[in-house]
Structure formats: structure tokens, C-alpha cells
TrEMBL record:
One of its GO terms (cellular component) is plasma membrane. InterPro entries: CD300_family_receptors, Ig-like_dom, Ig-like_dom_sf, Ig-like_fold, Ig_V-set. Pfam families: V-set (PF07686). Residues 11-94 form the Ig-like domain. One of its GO terms (molecular function) is transmembrane signaling receptor activity. This is Ig-like domain-containing protein. Keywords: Membrane, Transmembrane.
Amino acid sequence: SEPSTNMKVCPTLIFYSGIKGEDVTVKCSLSSSGHLKIFCKDKCEADDVLIQTTGNRAETGRYSIRYEGGFVSGGDLSVTITQLTSSDSGQYRCGLGEFLSTASYEDVEIMVADGEFDENVSVSSSHRDFTISVTDGEFLLK
């Protein structure tokens, strides 16, 4: 299906890395307006929403969300995931709008490893037709 005209599709993903058991904070800059702040996994359908709020701060389980900005001009959305596990690796979306279906989204990828990351390793892509999985601290690009 065609993406919604209100959906922000990014040509590249923003990557975040984390270590199992530690925390990671994802930051998204959103230029849209709206009351609803959303953080979700995968395609951001109703069952994918991990945390959402109409306020500027919220916390649910391992997820906390903080919004800094205006109602009209957009702003920065920060989401922290605590106690990372391997299953936290994957694609996520930050969203801002009036409704889940019409929000503007920014895509991010989180990679969780068992140990430390090599700071010289970088992952980039000019398209989104790939997946990243983490097994025993090794990255597998498919």
C-alpha cells in the first residue's frame, strides 16, 4: 500500500547502538504539529505502540518519553529504553501528530550487542530494503 501523504519517509535511517542490560536514548527532530507523541516498533500500527502521550513527559515500563518544543512548529522527542535486551534490536518510529494514522514519523534503528561496539564500525544505507539482526554481538546485514 502507498504511504500516507502525511507520513515522513526518510531516505536513510538513524542508527543507535546499545549494550544488553544498559539504557539507550533515541532523539528525533519532528517538524510537524500535534498533541500526540508516539514511539512504536516496526510499522507503527496500533499493536506496535510502545509508549504515547499527549503531555510532554510519560513513562511506561521500560520506556520513557520526553518532548521539548511547540505545538505548532514541532520539536525534539527523546525516548529512553532501559535494561536493553537482544529483542530490542530493530526498527522504531518516533511520531508527532493528532492521530496515530496521520502523524509524521521519523525512522530509527536500534542495535543491541552483548558487549562493546567497535567505534570504527559504521552502518549506512541509501535504501531501506535490509534488516539487521544481532546474534552474540555480531552484526548480520541481510
